[in-house]
Structure prediction request, 1851 residues.
Amino acid sequence: MKEKILYGYAGIFNTADDVIKAAKKVKSNGYEKFDVHTPYPVHGMPKAMSLKPSKLGYFALIFGLTGALSALLLTYWISAYDYPLVIGGKPFFSFPAYIPVIFEVTVLSASIATVITMLFIFFKFPNNAHPLNDTDYMKKVSSDKYGIVILASDEKFEESSVEQFFKSVNASEIFPIYFDIEELNANPKILEPKFLLFLLLAGIITSGATYFTLNKLLYMVPFNWMMEQPKLNPQQKSSIFSDGFGMRMPVEGTVARNYLPYAYKNQPEEAEKYLVNPLPVNKSILELGQKKYDIYCSPCHGYYGEGDSRLRGQFPNPPSLHSEKVRTWPDGRIFHVITEGQNIMPSYSTQLTVDERWAIIHYIRALQRSLNAKETDLK
Amino acid sequence: MSAVDYTQELSVIEGKPALRELDDLISKPLETKPDKKFYIALSITLSMLALFVIGLGLTFYYGIGTWGNNTPVGWGFGIVNFVFWVGIGHAGTLISAILFLFRQKWRTGIARFAEGMTIFAVMTAAIFPLIHTGRPWLAGYLFPYPNQHSVWVNFMSPLLWDVFAVSTYFTVSLIFWYVGLIPDLATLRERTSNKIKKIIYSIFSLGWRFSNRHWQHYEMVYLILAGFATPLVLSVHTIVSFDFAVSIMPGWHTTIFPPYFVAGAVFSGFAMVQNVLIFIRKIFNYEKIITIDTLEKMNKIILVTGSMVGYAYAMEFFIAWYSGIQAEQFTFINRAFGPYAWAYWIMVSCNVLSPQLFWFKKIRRSIPVMFVIAVLVNIGMWFERFVIVVTSLSRDYLPSSWGHFTPTIVDYMILIGSFGFFFTWILLFTKALPVVSIAEVKAVVEGSQPSHHNIE
Amino acid sequence: MEDHLLNFNNSMSKDNNDEIKEKLVNGTDEFPESVKEDFDLSKLSKVSRRKFLALLSASTAFAAAACSDYRDKGEIVPYNKRPEEILPGIANYYASTCSYCSNACGILIKTREGRPIKIDGNPDHPINKGKICAKGQASILNLYDPERLQEPLKNNKKVNWELIDKDIINVLKNSIKNNKKVAIITNTVISPTAKKVLEEFKTKYNNTIIISYDLFNDNQRRNAWFKCYGTFEYPSIKWNEAEVILSLDSDFLGNEGNFIENTIKFTSKREVIKSLNYNRLYAAESRMTITGMMADYRLRISPHRQFEFVMSLINELIKYGSAINLDKAAIQKFQNYSLDNFNIHKEKLNHLINDLNNNRGKSIVYAGDTLPEDVHIAVNLLNEILGNNKLYDYSTSFKKQYENSKQEEIFQLIDLMNRGDVDVVIHFDSNPVFHFPKDFGYEEAIKKVGTVISLTESQNETSALSNYILPINNQLESWGDAYARNGIYSLMQPVISPIFNTRQKEAVLLSWIYENEIYDDKIYHNYLMKNFEAEIYNKLKLAVDIKTFWYSALHDGVVLINEENKFPQFKTESINFIKNEISTSDYVVHLTQNYFIGDGKFSNNGWLQELPHPVTKVTWDNYAAISKNTASKFNLEMNDLVEVEVDNRKLILPVFIQPGMNDDTIHIELGYGRKVVGEVGKDVGFNAVKLMSKNFTGSPYIYTNAKIKKSNGKHILVTTQEHHSLDDKFVKDFHRIRKIIQEGTIVKYQKEPHFLHKEKHDLFSITREHKFSGVKWAMAIDLNKCTACNACVASCNVENNIPVVGRDQVERSREMQWIRIDRYYSGTEEEPIVSNQPMLCQHCDNAPCENVCPVSATNHSPDGLNQMVYNRCVGTRYCSNNCPYKVRRFNFYNFRDHFANAYYENELTSLVNNPEVTVRSRGVMEKCTFCIQRIMEARSNAIRDGRELKGSDVITACQQACPSNAIIFGDMNDPNSEISKLRKHNLSYHVLEELNIKPNVTYIAKLRNIHSEEIE
Prediction:
C-alpha cells in the first residue's frame, strides 16, 4: 500500500461557542498554520483567529475609479475627438449626458473585478484538488458542525501534541487528514485520439457554421442590408429589355434639352454656309481651346497643327492645319469636320461639347495666325 | 462588523430547527424527483413560451408592421412590456442589497429567490429592446465598437443609457446571486451522492471549503456588492424613466419620473415576489423559513410604494396644470377622459386604491387577499406603462398627426408569451438550485451564533 | 513571510517525499493577504487549458477561412457607342406634352441613361409655366405599370401584329362591301395630326362614324358660349386681374378647366410678401372644394338653385346699371328672382353685391362645368352687365379638334349597333362601357357588333368585351402634337422606345389606311413631321430651314402661332334661351370629378390612389358626402353604408360627414369603382356612373329628387388625418390655441403689420449652439398661396422613391409620404373656416429627434440639414416619437413586398425609382431630406465650374411642382436671398416655436380678405 502523506490534524466541535473558544486557544498556543471551517460565517471568528481586516475594499475602489476614468475618456474621445457630430445642436462633449454611462461602467467594472480578485487571486479558486475536499470532515463542517485544522507544515506541529490540544479544547472528534495520492499523480495526456477527433469536429462545425452565416444566411430574407436596390444605376443590366442593357439609346429623332442635333449631317457646304462661331475670342476661350486641342487633336495633328504627330507613321499622315485649304475654310467647315469626322478621322461629337469644338477652332485659328501672321498682327 | 449585535433581535425563523434539518428541508426539492404538479405547471408555461417564440418569430421575419404600432404611436406593447419587466426585476436586488445594508434579517428567507426573479425578469425585459427595433440583426450598433461606418454610438440618447444600465444591472445581479450561491453549492456538493450532480456542484462551487479565512473576505465582498447594487438598482429604473423624461413629448417630459418610476418598480416587484413566494412556501412547505411576518413586511412595503405612486399620479396632474402649457394640460385631461380613459382608470384603481387595504393588519396577514391585491397591482402597473407610452403619443402636439393604437394578435401573443418565458425559468430554478440561502438562514437561526461574551 | 522562505530553503535537503510534501504544503498554505511568489503551476490543471487554447485557435482558424468569400456584385454593362447627349449618371431633359387630359400641359421629362424617371412642367410653356398637376406628376408610374398589356390579343390569345393587321383590314374592307358601318369611339381629340389621321381613315373607309366624348367635359360651357357669342371657343380668364371672384359651384383651382393655369394666375394675386396685392374670392357651392377652402366668403347653395341665384344677382345688380343695354323683355326675365329666397347670411350677400358692383370690369363670375347651360348663359350675361368681359382672354381660348358628339349622335350609333348595321367598333383609347350611363345600353349594343377593337394601354371594362385588344404606347413612348389653346401648338416626343410589343395608336390606324405589309415604326413620326411642315412651318413663313425649326420646336416642346384674336360680341337674344323655371327638390345628387384618378384612367396608379383627398383626406375611396344635419336626420354616422336612389337607379356607398356641406346635397365623385382594371384599382370605391342617366334636366351631373336610405353595414373610409367633429369642445380649435395655424385679416394687417408678433417670448439655450458658416438650407411656405392641390406630395413621391403602402396600412396610419398637407377646421359645422398647412421635416437646428437616436443615425450636416443615415438606422422609432411634427416615416414592412403581394416589387416598376435616392428597406426610418440628392448635384456642378454654391442653385421637388409658387427654398445665410428676407417678414412664423428647437421651415401666415378685422 502507498504511504500516506499527512496534511494536518482536524478537530470537530458541536457549537459555535466551542469552536470560537478553541480558535482563540489555537492562536495562543502559537500555532500559525491553521484554519477554522464553519457552515456559515461565525461572528467574531476573524477576531478570534486574529486575522487582519480584508483589504478587498481598496481593490474595489481602484477598479471603480479605473472604470470611471476609462468611460470618461472613451466618451470624450468618441464624441469630441474621433468623430464629432452635431447632434440636436448640443456641444460635441456634453458631459452631463454622459454621466449615466460613466456611472454604469464604474459599477460594472468594480463589481466584476472585485469578485474575480477574491475568487481567483485571493482564494486561488477553482481548487477542487484540495486535500480537505471529499473528506467527511468537509461533510460535517459544510452542514452543522464546526471544525479546526492545524496543518502539518506548521513549525510547532507534532501529531501527539496537536491531538492533546484538541482534547483540551474538548473537540468532539479528532482525526488526521491525508493527501489524496491519486489526485497528485493524476496527469492526463494531451494527444489522445478521442480529443483530436473532437478537435477536428469542432473545427469543421465552426467553420461550416461561420461560412453559412456570413455568406448565405445573412443574405436571406428578412435580413436586409439595402445592398440590392430595386433601381437601375448606370451601367447595370436589366432583363426587362430584350438586349439586357439597362442603359437605353434615346429614340431616334428626339431632341434633348441643350442637345440640338447637328443639322448638317453629310452637308459640309451647308455647314460652311450657315454655321458661324458663336464664341468670342478671349483668353479663357483660347485656353479652353488649347486644353482640348492638346488632348484630342494633337496626337495626330501635332501640338502646333503641323501634322507632325506623335503617332506619325502609324496612319496615313494627317494633314497640316496650316495648309491653304484649311486656312481658307470657314469655321463652319472645320466644325463640320470635327463633328462628323473626315477620311479616317473619326467624329469627336461625343468627346467634345459644341462649345469646346468652337473653342478649339478659335485656337486653331490662333495657331494658323502664329505661322503666317497678317500685317495687322505684327503691329 | 462583529460590532453589530444580532442576538438581541427576535428570530426570523420560526422555531429552533437544527441546522441539518434546514439542509434537508431546503435541498429537498433538488433531491426529489419532480412530481405531477410540477410537470403540469411546466407544460402550461412552456405552451405560453411557444406563443412567445412564434410572436417574436413573426416580428423578426415580417417586421414591426405585425404589431399595432403606427406613426404617432411609435412604441406600443414592446416598450410597455420592457418597462414592466424591468420594474419586476427591481424587487430582487432591492431585497438582497438594500435590506442587507439596513440589516433587515427577515430578508434572508426570500433574498435568494427574489434575486433569481430579478435575473429572469431582466432577461425577459432585455428581449424587448432587441426585438422592437426595425432591424434586430443590427442591434450590435447599440454598442460602442469600431465599425465599418466609423460612426460611434450617441452617448446622449437615453436608449443607449438603457443598454448600459440594463446590461450592467443584469451582470451585477448575476454575480451577486452567484457569489451568494457558492457556499450553498458547496453544501450540496458534500450532501449529494449522485455522481453527475457531484461533478456539476464541484465545478460551480469552485472548491469552496467554508474556511473562515475565506468567510472574512466573502462577507466583505458581499457588503461591497450590496453597496454597489443599491445605487445601481435605483439608477436602472431612473434611466428607464429617462427614456420618457428626456424627450419633449407632453406627458413624457416630466421631472418627477425617476423617483416615480423607481417607486413603481419596487411596487410591482414586491407584488410579483409576494405572489410567487405564496406558492413556493406552500408547495415546498417553507412556512417556517418564509414566515407570515415576512409576507406582512412585504405588504407594508407594497402599501408604502403604492401610496408613493398614487402621490406621483396626483402630482403629474398638478404640475401639468401649473405649467400653463396647453399641450401638457391636454395630455393629462386626455388620459383621464380621452379615448384611453379606461386604461387610465384601471391603472388608478389597481395601483392607488387596492393597496390601501393593507392598512388593515388582518388583510396584510391573509394569504388569499394579499395574493389578489398583488395580482391587481401587477395589472395596474402594466397599465401604468401603457398609459404613459400610448396615450401620450397618440395625441401629441399637432392634432393633424394624432392617431389611435390598436394592438394586434401578435402583440398579445408576445405579452402572454413573456410571462411564459419568465415562469419557465422560475420553475426550472426551483428544481435546480436552493431557493433559500442555506448559509444565510443558518446564520440567523436562534443560537447559531456564539453567545455574547465569547465574541468579546 | 521570512519563515516560509526559510522552510522553502531547508525543504531542499529533505527526502523526496518530504519535498513533495513541502511543495504541496506551501502550495496549499494559506496566507490570504498576499499572493504567494512561489505558488506552484503544477497545481493548476494545465492540460485542460491547453486543450481549450488548441480548440480555440483551431476553430478561429477555420472560421477565418470561412469568411474569405465575397458576394457577386453583378456585372457592368456599358454603352457600346455612347450617344452624344447621354453621360451615364447625368440626367437629360426632354420637352413634351401631357396627353392625359385635354389641357395638354407642356411637360419636361427627366431621363437617366435613356429611361424616364420624372415628369415636371415645361417652363417654356406659356400656359402651365413649368407646373403640372399631381396626376401628371405621378402618371410616370403608368409607363411602368406591371399590368400593362405587352402583346396584342385576339379573343384573349396572344397573336402577332401582322396577323391582326391582315384580319382587320379585311374586316374593314368587307364592311364597305356589305355596306355596314365602322365606328371609332375616342375621347376628346386635341391633336391636329391625330385628327388628320382620323379624317384620312374616314376617307379611306367612308362608312366610318367618329364619336368623341369625355366623362368630364366643358360642353355645357361651350354650348352656352356658342349661344351667347357664336363660337364654341370660350376664352380663358385673366384671374390675375380679377379683384373680386365669384365662383358658382366651380372648382377652378382644383380640377376644372386648366386648373394649373388658374392656380398660377389666381395665386399671383394672393401676394403678401413683396407688396400687398390680394383678391377676394366668394365661393357659392354646395360641397367643399379646393376653391371653397381658399374662399374668403363661402355661401352654401345647392347646385340646382345656382340658376335662381345668378338670376337674383342679376336682378339685384341691374339696378345699379349695366354695361350692355337690355330691353324691357329681357329685364322682365329677372324680375321674379330674389335673393331673399336664399337663407344666406344677409351681411355676406350685401358684401357680395357691393364688391361686384364696385369692381365692375375688375371682377369675374365663374360657373362650374357641372352646372347646366342656362346657368352659364346667365353668368355670361351677368359678366357682360358688369363689364367683366375685359377679363376674357381670347388669345388663348380653348380649342378642340372635334366638338364632343351630341347625345343624339351616340344614340344613333347605338341604334345602328343594335340593328346590326355596325361591323366594326374601334375604341380609340377610350372606355365607353365604363363611362356611358347604363341606360345608354352600350354594353348590350357592342355584343351585336361583329368586330370590336380596343386600342388601350391596359385592360378595361371595354376591352374585356372586345375581340381584338391592341396594346398601345404610353405617352412617354409616343410621338404627337396638341393644339388645345389658341396660338399654342405643342409637340410630343418619346423618351424611351416602346418597352413592350406595343404600337402608337395613330400608327395603328395609319397602317390600316395604307395597308402596308410590314409595319414601320417611324410611320407616325414621319407623318407628324410632314403634317408639321404643312400646317405649322409653311404658315409661319420663317427664315430658318424646316429641319432646324423642327428640332428647335421639339427642343422647346411648344410653338407659338400668332393667330388673330377675335372678340365676339355678346348676343342679347341668347337670353331667350333661358328657360324660366325654379327647380325645387328635397335632396339633390351632385356628381363631380374626383381629384386624382381622372375618369378612371389612373385607377391602377397606387401613388394617385394613395394621395389624400385635398379636403377630406380620404384615400383609396369615394363616398357620399353629406352635411352633419342630414346625417343626424337619417341617424347616419361616418362610414355607414347608405343607399342613394335617383328614380330607381340605386347606389350603395359609405357616408362621409363633411363640414360645410349644403344640407340638401349628396356629393359623390365619379371615376371610382372600376371593375376590370389592375390589381391596384380593382373595386376601389363605388361607381357613381350608375346614378347617371340619358334623361337628365339641365346637367348630366345633377339629379334632383334623390332619396337616401340607411343601408346596413359599414365601410371604413381610411384617412390620413383623424376627423374631429367641430362641435367637440374637447379638441376644438387646437391649431389656433397652439399657434400651429396663425392667421389674420387684410384689414388688421394693414392697420398693424406686426400683429402676429405682438406677444413674443425670447427663447434662449443653456448650451452654446453651433454656428453654421457657408450655405445653410431653409424653406418658407406661403400659406396664402397653398391651395392643397397635392402636386408637391406627388412630386416628392416620385423624386424620393416613396412606396405605396396600401389601404390597410393607411388605415393603421402608416402612410409614407414625406410631405403632407394638414387641414384644420375652425368655426362651425355649417360654416367652417379651413386652414391648410403643408407639413414636412422642419430640419430643426436643435432637432429633438437627433438627441434620442442611440446610434447617431440621424444627425446634423454642416449645411444645416437634419440628415438620416439609412444604413446606420436600426429602427428604434424613438426619433419619430420625439418629433413634435410627426413628419418621420417608418418602414413598418418592406412595403414594396407587403403591398398587394409584392405588386410593385418587380424589375419593371423598379425602373421608376430615382437612381440617386436609396430605396429604403423595412425597419428603417425615413423623412424629408430637402432633396439632398439635388443639393449634392448642384454642389458638384458648382465645384466643377469652380464657383461658390448658391442657394438659388437648388430647387426641391415640392418647390418645383408647386403651381402657386408657395414654396421658397434657399440659403438663409445669404442676406440677399429671398428666404433670409422671408424669415424676417412680419407674417412669418415657425410652428411650435416655443419648444426652441429652431425649425428651418418658415410659414407665412395666411391673411383672409374679409371686411372685418377678426376671423369669426
Summary: Chain A touches chain B through 74 residues (CB under 8 Å).
